[in-house]
Amino acid sequence: MNNQRVSATLFTALAFTGIALAAGDAAASGVIVCNNCNSVAQAAKQGGDGLVIVTDFPNKKIWGFRNEYDRETGQFFPRPVSIPASIVDSHNNTMTMTDPAKAQITIRQNDPGSNAFPFPAGFEGWNAHHIATDTNMRGQFAHALAAHYTGATTSSNLWNNLTVSLKSLALGWLGTTGRFEFVTVTVFWSDGSRTVMTIDKDDVTTMDYVPGQSFDSEGNRIPDYSIGRGSGDEYVGNYQFSNEDGLNEWLYAASQYGIPITGTRSKRMSCSWDGRTLSCHYY
Hints:
The protein has three domains: about 1-80, no CATH class; about 85-190 and about 200-210, no CATH class; about 225-280, no CATH class. It has helices spanning about 10-15, 25-30, 40-45, 85-95, 130-135, 135-150, 155-175, 245-255, and strands spanning about 30-35, 50-55, 60-70, 75-80, 105-110, 180-190, 195-200, 205-210, 235-240, 260, 270-275, 280. The chain is elongated. The strands form three sheets. A four-stranded mixed sheet has the order 1-2-3-4. The chain has a four-stranded mixed sheet with strand order 5-6-7-8. It has a four-stranded mixed sheet with strand order 9-11-12-10, with no helix packed on it. Helix 4 packs parallel to helix 7. It is built from eight helices and twelve strands. It has about 280 residues and is α/β, with parallel strands linked by helices. A hairpin with a 2-residue loop joins strand 7 (about 195-200) and strand 8.
């Protein structure tokens, strides 16, 4: 059978046994949806050669198999295998999100024990300013954060690809049940600054940066590209900085997005929006 496609006949036949293939992409990827499953092993056979994950979303279960082709019968024989812990943990975390409030996740760089999923390594010394002002750094972190959220951090590309497909299908299923359309992740960096990102079923290999929602450690909103999209009103108000480093980081962000600042330099300023331009003044 060509696993890139699921024929109407096969789809109908599987439906009668409790097996629901979530489009050809699910079959091709080796992830089979079998909600309220009557025969997990039978479902696994439809995943093609090699590693397969069978998932039952309503019952929050997943099973791993390795399909081996039997030349005598012309069918696949599924042998149970252990699914990597990062994938199991990620799936369990997602399936416990029973309402929009639980789709709001907070992770802290300096408090790994409290996190729902691991904070990506390799970003020591970074903060919300880097993500708000540097496109490349933002993209790098967005992909790493998504990989850790989906559990695609194993040493096997096959397992990583499977968990990406599984996560997309899981978020899609949760969306159809009316629970939520996306997951929001608020990232607290070691310096206390924060970044907000989201992930949805359409692309779980990266996270989307939420513009206008980055703050430094003192609660000052960090300028980003949202200003150029007409959202400068979110930045109206007073800003205070306790040290020169914090002020300099904010000024750099302001220069990146063309925010004029007037007056005698100090650690306090006020910003206003005229409908087109955000401007700030030291006081």
